[in-house]
Structure formats: C-alpha cells, structure tokens
Design goal:
The protein has 257 residues and is of the alpha+beta class. It folds into 4 domains: 1-32; 37-65, no CATH class; 67-188, NusG, N-terminal domain (Alpha-Beta Plaits, 2-Layer Sandwich); 203-256, SH3 type barrels (Roll), CATH 2.30.30.30. It is built from 6 helices and 12 strands. It has helices spanning 4-35, 40-53, 55-64, 80-93, 138-145, 165-188; strands at 69-75, 100-104, 107-114, 117-124, 129-134, 150-153, 198-201, 209-212, 221-228, 233-240, 243-250, 254-256. It has a 5-stranded antiparallel β-sheet with strand order 11-10-9-8-12, with no helix packed on it. Strands 2-5-1-6 form a 4-stranded antiparallel β-sheet, covered by helices on one side. A 3-stranded mixed β-sheet has the order 4-3-7, covered by helices on one side. α2 (40-53) packs across α3 and α3 (55-64) crosses α6 (165-188). It is elongated.
Length: 257
C-alpha cells in the first residue's frame, strides 16, 4: 500500500520541475524572437541600420524630424541662388528666423559636351524655383513674397500648398546620394565610383538642321533625329535622289546651319 504522505511530498517537486521547463521554454522563445528582430527594439535597430546605409532613407528620416513645411517659390530664371541668399539675409534682418528656417536650390551633376570636349558641371535641377522650409504666417509670407527676385508662390498665391515629404525627398535625394558616395570614397581612400549622369550636347539638338562637311555625304543637308553623346555621333536624314535616307555621322562631320 502506498503512503499518502509520500505521494504528497513528491507532487510539489514535479510541479516545480514543470514550472522550470515552462520558464526555460519561454526564455528560448524570447531569445529566438530577439535574434530574428521580432521585438520592437529589434525592428527599431533594423530601421536605424537601414537609414545609416541608405542615404535616401537617412534623408527622409532627417526631413521628417524638421519643423515647418516645404513650399516652392517662383524666381526669375538664373536668379535661384541669389534669391536663396537674399531670403536667408531677410530672415535675419526681419527677425523671422523662427518662421523661415531654410532655403534650398536643388542641384544635379551633369556632363556637357561642347566642341567635342566633355565637362562635368552642376546645374539647377528645378530652373526658376527655390524650396523654402517655413511656418506659413502673414509675416513669413510677406518676407518671402517681397524678397528681390521672387515672383510668387507655387499654387494659391495667398495660401500656397506645401509639398509632401515624398516630393521633397525626390528633389533633394540626388545631392544626398552624391554626398554619401563622396564621403564613402574619401573614407576608404578610393576614387568616386562611376555614376549615371545626364549628358547634354550643347553643340547640337534633335531637330537641328546641319550641313555635312566630310565623307560621302559632304555638302548635303541633314536633320538630326538622334544624338549619341558617348559615341559622339548623330543619326539624321539626308535627301538623296529626292528621298530621305537615314545616316550616321560623327560630330566632326557636321556643322550647324
């Protein structure tokens, strides 16, 4: 016959073992979740790491934390940088620095070809426009609108609408990517990696009428319908025996009429 007192003594021990197994199992699940980044802390760390490695994600994070809204103002063509400088000076002189925070002229790097020579230059991404981050009030509106070179706000003249975060990121991303690539190359002591940039041929444009100066089609007139800056060639149409014939010509074989 079993002793009931002995059974009572054993049961608590088994219960304790079960509880220990349960706790150990829960710890293992928590560790697995943490390893997989399933916790809020893990997800936050992943987002932070992504922002650090992706210049556009980092730019988005920085912009979203800034005060004010972004607006677009019209300027006289070629006066964008002057307007930016004038606006920054007026914000100080009119004591509205707490309303007008920042002015930006988005730029991009391009390659221009003229007389057969390639030159890398920076140009305005949005000719005739400047971005302004500000708190829109009557005072700040007046300070911006009456800045020399400004012709008005984009949208409703007196109640302009702000840009979305996506629109601002799209406009400022190229410079952020260029800066990140340059800093990474400098840190590693390596040259900048090649990037795809816009190429502009200043000598010729699609639709131009040119005279062929060399080769079998010399003295004939041609109309350019395609330009290949890298190969320094154009494709065009020349009239031979009353029919338009497609030809490929190098830059040094043609002269603009």
């Amino acid at each position: 016959m079993s002793d009931p007192n002995l059974n009572d003594a054993i049961e608590p021990t088994e219960s304790v073992d079960d509880e220990l197994d349960t706790v150990e199992g829960a710890d293992e699940v928590d560790e697995t979740k943490a390893a997989e980044g399933g916790t809020p802390e893990g997800e936050a760390a992943e987002e932070e790491a992504k922002a650090e490695s992706d210049p556009v994600a980092k730019l988005r994070e920085e912009l979203s934390a800034l005060p004010g809204e972004w607006y677009v103002i019209h300027t006289y063509a070629g006066y964008e940088k002057r307007v930016k400088a004038n606006l920054e000076q007026r914000a100080v002189s009119l004591n509205v620095e707490d309303l007008i925070y920042q002015a930006e002229v988005p730029e991009e790097e391009i390659v221009q070809i003229k007389n057969g020579e390639r030159k890398t230059v920076r140009q305005n991404k949005l000719p005739g426009y400047v971005l302004v981050r500000m708190e829109l009030t009557d005072q700040s509106w007046g300070a911006v609108r009456h800045t020399p070179g400004v012709t008005g706000f984009v949208g409703d003249a007196f109640n302009p609408y702000p840009l979305t975060l996506d629109e601002v990121v799209k406009m400022l991303a190229p410079e952020a990517e260029e800066r990140a690539a340059r800093e990474a190359a400098e840190a590693e002591g390596k040259p900048l990696p090649p990037r795809k940039v816009e190429v502009q041929v200043l000598d010729f444009e699609v639709g131009d009428s040119v005279t062929v100066t060399d080769g079998p089609f010399a003295t004939l007139q041609a109309t350019i319908n395609e330009i290949n800056p890298d190969a320094k060639k154009v494709k065009g149409l020349v009239e031979i025996f009353g029919r338009e014939t497609p030809v490929e010509l190098s830059f040094d074989q043609i002269q603009k009429n």
